[in-house]
Design goal:
CATH superfamily: Metal-dependent hydrolases
GO cellular component, one term: cytoplasm
Catalytic activity: L-histidinol phosphate + H2O = L-histidinol + phosphate
Shape: globular
InterPro entries: Histidinol_P_phosphatase_HisJ (IPR010140), PHP_dom (IPR004013), Pol/histidinol_Pase-like (IPR016195)
Number of helices: 9
GO molecular function, one term: histidinol-phosphatase activity
Number of domains: 1
Keywords: Amino-acid biosynthesis, Histidine biosynthesis, Hydrolase
CATH class: Alpha Beta
């Protein structure tokens, strides 16, 4: 489907490539009708900067985000006739009070521009869990007893009696709940990112974990959030997009709304692995896909009207959720992926 609600560029993200303009032009070339520009929110502590940001300061990151918003607004107007561009922000959840104070300030400063949030968690115990395996293992080790921290056993989470991976996931889903509960993000980002390096870990075998998963899904559904089917997991070694099949099945059974994201970090990643997303959704019987469109009642300085159809979502009231008309899998967008699609699913 020619939509993505989660993207980045090398111009405003140090682990991305290409300019924001080049990402947009690639999306147009690929036939997208709606594309979300969702740069990472900045981090305001030196300890939270990534290695590729070692030449920067927290102030630099804040300035970089401000420039992103300016550039995104300019490009939104420039390409308005070719596709709908929405401006978003992908959240962090590092340390609650620090993250929330910064996020509040960003949303206030950029209130006229930020259409929606992608609610994402990338840290547990203030340690990144998706940067690389070594850093993930540091997060895992933070749940080990002190005696294990000096041995190689620290990084073996699935040995008998070791609960570290379960505890890490519990902390992750609690942070996700706190974020959803506090900010009502319009899109829920890579729901089960905590499983990136352990995709075979079965959440359903741990009742406390599965209860958290269901609780978070129900909360997001309660205000109409969209759950992204994020194809970036494929390039990171998964056989399916996020979320994993048990979670996808639960979202579907509870009536959740699904959308597509490529989570691109440069023009070469736009629509990457969308054929896998297509096959995954068709294999799991997904009948509807949703996307966001601008709430055109919003006027500068005058707020936004909700209308009477219930489609406006999120406390920002700047976007509406819209379902793809007809059978999404028949859209001509998919013709460019024909060689990669399951032929049985094209019938």
């Amino acid at each position: 489907m020619p939509i993505s609600l989660h993207s980045h560029s090398g111009q405003f993200c140090q682990h991305g490539t290409g300019s924001l303009r080049s990402v947009i032009e690639r999306a147009i070339e690929r036939g997208f009708i709606s594309y979300g520009l969702t740069e990472h929110m900045p981090r305001n502590r030196l300890m939270d900067l990534y290695p590729e940001e070692s030449h920067m300061s927290p102030t630099d990151l804040l300035d970089q985000f401000d420039r992103f918003v300016i550039e995104a607004n300019q490009l939104k107007e420039l390409y308005n006739s070719e596709l709908e561009l929405l401006i978003g922000l992908e959240t962090e959840m590092i340390e609650r009070s620090v993250t929330f104070e910064l996020l509040d300030n960003l949303l206030e400063t950029h209130r006229p521009s930020i259409d929606y949030l992608v609610g994402s968690v990338h840290h547990v115990n203030q340690i990144p869990i998706d940067f690389d395996l070594e850093t993930f293992n540091r997060a895992l080790c933070s749940f080990k007893p002190p005696r294990a921290l000096t041995s190689d056993r620290c990084v073996e989470p699935e040995e008998e009696g070791d609960d570290s991976l379960r505890l890490l996931c519990e902390a992750y889903f609690q942070a996700q709940y706190d974020l959803i509960d506090s900010y009502r993000p319009e899109v829920i980002g890579h729901f089960d990112l905590c499983l990136l390096f352990h995709p075979k870990f079965d959440l359903t075998q741990h009742q406390s974990l599965w209860n958290q998963v269901e609780r978070n899904i129900r909360l997001a559904i309660s205000y109409g959030a969209l759950f992204e089917v994020n194809s970036a997991s494929i390039r990171k070694g998964w056989s399916t997009p996020y979320p994993s099949k048990p979670i996808l099945s639960l979202i579907i059974s509870l009536g959740g709304k699904l959308t597509l994201s490529d989570d691109s970090h440069g023009p070469e990643r736009v629509s990457e692995n969308y054929s896998e997303s297509y096959n995954y959704l068709r294999d799991n019987g997904v009948k509807e896909l949703w996307y966001l469109t601008r709430n055109n009642s919003c006027k500068m300085g005058q707020g936004c009207d909700d209308g009477d159809d219930g489609s406006v979502i999120g406390p920002r009231r700047r976007v509406r959720s819209v379902t793809i008309e007809g059978d999404w899998w028949e859209h001509p967008f998919w013709d460019r992926f024909t060689s990669s699609l399951n032929p049985l699913q094209k019938k």
